[in-house]
Write a structure and sequence with these properties.
Layout (H helix, E strand, L loop, with lengths): L7 H26 L7 H22 L7
Length: 69
Amino acid sequence: MKSKDNSKRNIIQWTAFVIVILSLVIRIALFVSGIAQDLEYSTINAITWTGFTIGIILILVSYLFPKKT
């Protein structure tokens, strides 16, 4: 059984994925809990777009590391 190889590239890509998913989960949690009613809609959008931006930047940075096969 071959063990998984955790290269820097894979770790950074998974981190980016988790950040994007967490930003969307936070948005849903704020809407479901009712806290979003007290916040401006631009604040909710800023949370989502910040998560997307950080995720995209991390994905681009991950391609600087060589892929291990």
